[in-house]
Specification:
Elements: E1 4-5, H1 7-11, E2 32-37, E3 39-40, E4 46-52, E5 59-63, E6 70-73, H2 74-79, E7 85-93, E8 96-110, E9 113-123, H3 126-132, E10 138-140, H4 142-145, E11 149-153, E12 158-162, E13 174-176, E14 179-180, E15 184-191, E16 195-202, E17 210-213, H5 214-220, E18 230-236, E19 239-253, E20 256-266, E21 280-282, H6 284-287, E22 290-295, E23 300-305, E24 316-317, E25 320-325, E26 328-334, H7 339-343, E27 350-354, H8 362-368, E28 375-382, E29 385-392, E30 394-395
Parallel strand pairs: 1-18, 5-10, 6-9, 16-21, 17-20
Antiparallel strand pairs: 2-12, 3-4, 4-5, 4-8, 6-10, 7-8, 8-9, 11-12, 11-22, 13-23, 14-15, 15-16, 15-19, 17-21, 18-19, 19-20, 22-23, 24-30, 25-26, 27-28, 28-29
Length: 397
């Protein structure tokens, strides 16, 4: 199982007083404003290209329903020589809290659509760039979604944006009626020893299937004793944190049921997940299996199964975290008692190649270490000397 990133909820949690989205009467038909392509990374994370103000440089943004605003990377701000304005507003994430500064009254230029008067808050997204091997310049969340109807098609890898108004959803799907703060909240049912109905953040910015609050697990006695979670790691606001990783028997979202779902268990000391109001979040390794119309103005999300609906989940576990740093694929954290530790990996090792692949592509390498049951030859550089390490990929099932 590759390390996951939970930018949405954990990087950009609600940081201003909550305002419930008002549902207004839709009298005009929604009009298509633009359509453009997007890219996907681990766990289904979506990135789109855009520019800001009059700067010609194309920037990479993560599209994220788990973000309560819109943000820019601090290095991008510095590169454009922009001057942030400080504030007394804080955000809370998995690794702590920090005060925010803003770039105000900014125009975001998407392909075929410009959105003026946006206030970007500034966050350091270096770890995102290192994880995906491409520069991540920001995250687009609530400040964008509240203005439009957004159709995300994971089959064609295209996004269509519509003005608010009446829209006819495609047949064969299901319309969710989420609650809203600045992040949609949906109902779902999980099953392990028993069935429990509760609520979750709907978070396309989380590159995982399901995350549950540890206190919810303890209070409900939900997890079966036979489960033996392994230790994994995620990255979020302020740094990195370890979580437990296991599987649960079943997750039901609307009428759709997923079985043997990989599940992270998060010790939520800062109550990021708003327990007991919520049990956790549903991430994009579930949500990418639906073509989705996100309709904040009408307080609806329409989902319809797509070609990825029946794809297997990633049950692999190596305990090896790798990043793209200064042009090299480098080992970060090695989980204790994991296959990676037992194989002899050390933090700081440089991955020169895996199997016959010497591409220096961190995404390709991550894909290769998801193959359960395989023993992969990994060539590393340590202290300027080449070494061969054999890594056996285990399963969390």
């Amino acid at each position: 199982m590759k390390p996951k990133l939970l930018y949405g909820i954990f990087c950009l949690l609600i940081f201003v007083p909550v305002k419930i989205i008002a549902q207004t009467e839709q009298t005009e038909r929604a009009k298509k404003l633009t359509e453009f392509g997007f890219k996907q990374f681990s766990g289904g994370i979506i990135t789109i290209s855009a520019t800001i103000n009059d700067f010609p440089d194309s920037l990479n943004f993560i599209l994220d329903t788990g973000s309560s605003g819109i943000s820019l990377d601090s290095a991008t701000v510095s590169g454009f020589k922009l001057t942030p304005e400080p504030s007394d507003i804080d955000i809370i994430g998995i690794a702590g809290s920090r005060s925010l500064s803003f770039i105000n009254n900014t125009t975001l230029h998407l392909p075929g659509l410009s959105i003026p008067n946006l206030d970007f808050h500034i966050v350091d997204y270096e770890v995102l760039s290192e994880t995906y091997g491409v520069k991540i310049d920001g995250i687009i969340g609530y400040s964008f979604f509240r203005k439009f109807i957004v159709n995300i098609n994971y089959d064609s890898l295209k996004i269509a944006i519509y003005s608010p108004g009446q829209i006819k959803y495609p047949r064969g799907g299901h319309t969710l009626k989420p609650g809203f703060t600045k992040i949609p909240i949906v109902e779902g049912r999980i099953k392990e020893g028993r069935k429990i109905d509760t609520r979750y953040y709907f978070d396309i910015g989380a590159g995982l299937s399901l995350l549950l609050n540890k206190q919810f697990i303890n209070d409900s006695s939900f997890l079966l004793k036979k489960r033996k979670p392994v230790t994994s790691q995620v990255e979020g606001l302020g740094g990195k944190t370890q979580m437990q990783l296991t599987i649960i028997k079943e997750l039901k979202l609307g009428p759709y049921v997923f079985r043997k779902v990989p599940t992270y268990i998060f010790s939520d000391e800062n109550n990021v997940l708003s327990y007991p109001t919520l049990a956790g979040l549903i991430g994009n390794d579930i949500l990418r299996r639906f073509n989705t119309i996100v309709n904040y103005p009408a307080r609806e999300i329409h989902i319809i199964p797509n070609n990825h609906f029946h794809e297997d989940f990633d049950y692999s576990y190596s305990g090896l975290n790798i990043y793209f740093v200064d042009g090299k694929v480098v080992v970060g954290e090695v989980m204790k008692d994991s296959p990676a530790e037992k194989s002899g990996f050390l933090p700081g090792d440089i991955i020169f190649g895996i199997g016959n692949n010497f591409s220096n592509d961190v995404q390709k390498y991550k894909e290769m270490i998801q193959n359960v049951g395989q023993t992969l030859p990994v060539v590393i550089i340590r202290n300027e000397k080449a070494m061969l390490i054999l890594l056996k990929i285990k399963s969390i099932k």
